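Thread: Para-hydroxybenzoate--polyprenyltransferase, structure

OP (GT): Posting the sequence first so everyone is looking at the same thing. Length is 462 residues per the record. Can we get the structure tokens written out before standup tomorrow? I want them in the notebook alongside the other entries.
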Amino acid sequence: MLGRTRFAIAPQGLRKAGSLTQTRVLYHALSSQRPAAQLALAKAPSQSLVTRPAPTTALIPTPQTLSQPGLQIQRWQSTTTSASDYPVWQPQTKGILSVLPPSWVPYAELMRIEKPGGLYGFYFPYLIGLSYAACIAQPVISPAFLASTSAAFLVWNVFLRGAACVINDNFDREFDRQVARCQLRPIARGAVTPLQGHVFYWALTAIGAGLVSQFPHATQCFWHAIPIHALVSLYPLAKRWTDFPQVVLSIPLSWAVFMSCSALGVEPFTMQDTALALATTSLAASQAVWIVIFDYVNACQDTVDDIKAGVRSMAVRYRDTFAFISVLGTAQVGLLVAAGWLAGLSPVYYTVACGGNALWLAIMAKTVNRAKPHISAWWFAWGSLIVGGTTVAGLLAEYFHFLLENIIGIKSSPRKTPCLNSEPWLQADRVPRTVWSTVVRTVQYILYGWIYRLLDITMNLQ
């Protein structure tokens, strides 16, 4: 800082001048020294955050620039702004946080209970793995067992994702105080101390371990859960020493496919059939690529803040969002196709899962724009539900198609299948044709309506 003049660094082409809202966003993102009132706000107890600090200084850009390779350095001059420019924590008046006891709210916020977008990102790779394992498992998995196992994994993921968020906020508390979107997280604003955060993390970890012990094939699941939990906990540190923290996060989250297979008795690393082992690996790799895209889009909201705070990420390194999402999206769809081909899946899978993923990724590549962070926020909130849900829909359609082939004898499946007569719940006289036809048609209508509605929403994001 020179006198009353401050310098800020931002990527080329990231700013548009003229908007007061953009000026406020740039102030939060780029001020090299946070005002004393704002710093006190971040460190104050949560109860004191309902009052605003006194007016202080904002930054308005002037045309002066200096050059540096890959960056643009602009000079910002100080002017007076009101305290309304600063984020202020307010108790929630609706949603799940509004019904919790006040002392629980900071801990629920640490777990991101009110923001399910990240939970979708954690959970859907498991649901994809379970749906895929149901397609290839021998003997065939019953729908009731598949549903109950999926529910158990959902509960576990609430605690796994909660623990990951707690340790992330604890490690990143100093960074969060410099990033506008993260300044009011409980540890950053002082509502929870770092020690309390660590204790809460270990409590969630213990609960998660207890849940895994109740899974089918619990011993095999434990061997997968331990490295998954360890790696998601170390992810925040990756932002300090590499430009590829998204890759680090993708490893444990995509490993969910292997853990899900183990839970249904399909051991991915001991398969006699090499093609199925390669298919399982391809499916896991496709999820790893998706998680990189998903977290990259999320980080696009904070690129300028991350540069100021010294946070490293692929969103900082790779500025062309269209090219990045297009290239990785093509790889993801290609891996899904490879998984289907190696596993011998039917055209139902290719149409719904592969075609659906290609459609949504094309829309994402077209709509994500750093100048419109609300679009990145929308994709982070709903992207895993949409893209992961499409993959799950394709695999479940394949699973029920497989059951229909063998139960009511529509067509002989080209895949090697077990003797279905040994499974009493699969006997045709217990499952009338009309019941299965009604179920399939109902699911089809729901999927068509869901896809139409999502297309309508995404087309209006521009």
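GT: Both are above now. Quick notes for whoever picks this up: Strands lie at 5-11, 56-68, 71-81. The chain has one domain: 103-411+436-460.
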